[in-house]
Specification:
There is one protein chain. The chain is α+β, with helices and mostly antiparallel strands. It has 5 domains: 128 residues, 3-Layer(aba) Sandwich (Rossmann fold); 97 residues, no CATH class; 82 residues; 97 residues, no CATH class; 69 residues. It has 22 helices and 20 strands. The strands form 5 sheets. It has a 6-stranded antiparallel sheet. The protein has a 5-stranded parallel sheet with strand order 2-1-3-4-5, with helices on both faces. Strand 4, helix 4 and strand 5 form a beta-alpha-beta unit. The radius of gyration is 31 Å and the shape is elongated. InterPro entries: CheY-like_superfamily, PatA-like_N, Sig_transdc_resp-reg_receiver. One of its GO terms (biological process) is phosphorelay signal transduction system.
């Protein structure tokens, strides 16, 4: 037997039907036609779970549940309301009074059985805590907005824990006297974690009342947090009407981002999104990157697409074809033997140096326990050097296993380095001959636009080099940024009118 169920409903037909169906599912079942009758029999029956209607004469379900929770002998019995009332207010009231779940009629028996099992599992889990959860429920029936109303209206202090259907913890929110204090969701913390939890529509929640002594992390009011989260979720929904699907790959258009959009999105968050776009991640990968909440990432992408700052560069099939090519090793501009050696070092988690001989400049890649940590190409070091190594052809590799003591100048994953490096090699392949020897001059009549550049460190660095050098190649060589990023910054300044690029006479 899975356990003993007490069914409480003033309609005998429903009571008998539930008793029959639950008995077939291997439960021992008992039926009472009123809350009063149930209260008299519970000490003798000792049910493992109670399923009760709300609308009953003499004593309704709310009163019945409240009396159970006020008695220490029955306070911990799992309790589910099964009612025809579908209004959220009724569900809130049920949970406020101590019900563990609320299922609306009509209901399929399989769904009710599933809810009963989850409630009983959580009741067993709750016994490991010092006290039973004040209340708990299902996110598919109660969203975070509704749950917070219970916490705030009752001035509760404690922890609201969220778990997935497999029982794994998703995140938590801390409250002090009903006020939002702290939140954690995956790697996110604070308000971003709160917005991420607001977006969850599946899973379960449990509130455990306790004194909170942790430092305050979220300073806005409950209402302000809910309004901000709701706004982000609504704005993010617009993304689904813009994109054909979330597997679309996006590209940045050659337009300046207005200051008001930077202010609205946040400079740092906007930069994170643009970096992921530059890496050719799909919209889905950007939204689920964990660098910010899904509502925030969706809202920013929606704004950038509506403002024509971003556009769709690839569809789902093109993305699949590209990934297929990358997986098979075809379609890459990097020498295949070099990729094979690098991946072998990564797989075997080796430490050492990979020297590439028979090339005009001395070149070497450094590995620590399989991770690529440093590179030099002549006098150039870091990621810039690595991508230049990728661009060169020919050569003879020689790997020397040894301890690595050099300063780590690269911290990206191998996969990302190969993808980014290949893209840079491809894009710069034709540009070197065409424009690297061109002359750059500063347009002093438009220097007032330099104020726009100062807020972007990369542009500031490149503009400083423009003041020192007069040739595209010299600026790219002197820059600490990768060749492609430096070249793109030069193009941005050309569009702003700050510099001019002229062909060499």
């Amino acid at each position: 037997m899975k356990g003993k169920v007490l069914i409480v409903d003033d309609d005998p037909k429903i009571g008998r039907l539930l008793k029959f169906k639950l008995a077939k599912a291997d439960y021992e079942t008992e039926y009472c036609s009123s809350g009063g009758e149930a209260l008299e029999k519970i000490p003798m029956l000792k049910p493992h779970i109670i399923v009760s209607d709300i609308d009953m004469p003499n004593m309704n379900g709310y009163e019945f549940c409240e009396k159970l929770r006020q008695d220490s002998r029955t306070a911990s019995i799992p309790f589910i309301f099964l009612s025809g009332r579908t209004d959220t207010t009724d569900q809130l009231e049920g949970l406020r009074l101590g019900a563990d779940d609320y299922v609306c009629k009509p209901v399929k028996i399989d769904f009710l059985l599933e809810r009963m099992e989850k409630v009983m599992e959580r009741a067993i889990k709750a016994k490991s805590f010092k006290s039973q959860a004040d209340f708990s429920g299902n996110l598919s029936q109660m969203n975070l907005n509704d749950v917070m109303q219970i916490v705030e209206s009752n001035h509760k202090s404690g922890e609201l824990e969220f778990s997935a259907s497999d029982g794994k913890t998703m995140g938590r929110i801390l409250f002090n006297k009903g006020n939002l204090m702290k939140a954690q969701f995956g790697a996110l913390e604070g308000a971003e974690a709160f917005y991420g939890l607001m977006d969850e529509e599946e899973g379960f929640f449990e509130f455990f009342g306790k004194e909170i002594n942790e430092p305050e992390q979220i300073t806005m009011t409950n209402m302000a947090a809910l309004l901000q989260g709701s706004r982000l979720i609504d704005e993010g929904k617009g993304l689904y009407s813009i994109l054909p699907d979330l597997e679309s790959v996006l590209a940045k258009n050659s337009v300046e981002i207005p200051p008001e959009i930077i202010d609205r999105c946040g400079k740092e968050r906007l930069q994170k999104i643009l970096v992921m776009v530059e890496k050719q991640l799909t919209a889905s990968e950007i939204i689920n990157s964990g660098k910010m909440s899904r509502p925030r990432a969706s809202a920013i992408l929606s704004e950038l697409l509506n403002s024509k700052i971003l556009s769709i560069s690839q569809n789902r099939q093109e993305r699949k074809d590209k990934k297929k090519d990358e997986k098979s090793g075809s379609g890459l501009a990097i020498e295949e033997w070099l990729l094979t050696v690098m991946k072998n070092v990564e797989t075997r988690k080796l430490s050492g140096t990979l020297e590439i001989g028979n090339r005009p400049l001395k070149q070497m890649i450094f590995f620590h326990e399989g991770s690529l940590v440093h590179a030099f190409h002549g006098k150039v070091v870091g990621k810039k050097a690595l991508y230049r190594i990728f661009a060169d052809k020919g050569g003879a590799p020689k790997f020397q296993a040894q301890a690595i003591v050099v300063k780590h100048t690269i911290d990206d994953e191998m996969k990302e380095l190969i993808e980014d490096g290949n893209r840079e090699v491809e894009l710069l392949k034709d540009l070197r001959k065409a424009s690297f020897n061109n002359i750059i001059t500063v347009n002093h009549q438009h220097m007032e636009k330099v104020s726009r550049i100062k807020s972007r460190p990369g542009l500031t660095d490149v503009l400083t080099l423009v003041m020192q050098h007069d040739r595209v190649k010299d600026i790219i060589d002197a820059s600490l940024l990768t060749d492609l990023r430096t070249y793109n910054h030069l193009l941005t300044m050309v569009k702003l009118g700050v510099i001019n690029i002229q062909k060499e006479n």
